[in-house]
Amino acid sequence: VLMEDASRLDRCGIITPTLLKRNGKTIDYCFARRFVSNWNIMLPFLLHNRNRKGRLTKNARKQNLLSIQPDLLQKGEVFPIDYPSGSCFFCTKEALQEIKGFDPGTFLYYEEIILYKRLCRIGLRNYCDPRVQAIHLGGHSTRMSDNLFLQRCNLESADLYFRKYGDCTPVQRMVWALTKASWH
Fold this sequence. Notes:
Blueprint: H1 2-8, E1 12-20, H2 38-46, H3 55-63, H4 65-68, H5 71-75, E2 79-81, E3 90-91, H6 93-98, H7 111-121, E4 125-135, H8 147-164, H9 170-182
Parallel strand pairs: 1-4
Antiparallel strand pairs: 1-3, 2-4
Helix pairs in contact: 2-9
């Protein structure tokens, strides 16, 4: 179904199904995200992942397209998104060839945002088909990993994003450099 959708949608780069949590009933809202500012991407690092006054929770809600437009799923029609979860999506071979695949500098984090940025640069769009569903095991591939290793991967992928794709202002570059240094 996703392949058929991609062939009929205008300038489709990625199409994703609705993701359900491992119980197969609860929606995992990470599949339909909208792009937020560089400041929002930096916030978890600035706060060292501490949810002070609920800021990280509010920040995550800003990225959740369905918290802003909950009726999108009920309509049962394909709708545009900025970027999906990397756990499950369909991307055309032509789109991947045009952007020359995944950036090899990422591992576990930021692949979706980087794909979004790269696809946007060539005029492609991303979509969700709510009629198709997949189960997301949610961190299953990292559950046995060392926390420091995961933190390092996250920081390195975020750094790659900001250096190559973030289109940062000079102030954002300075704040990111200081933030990154505070994690070492």
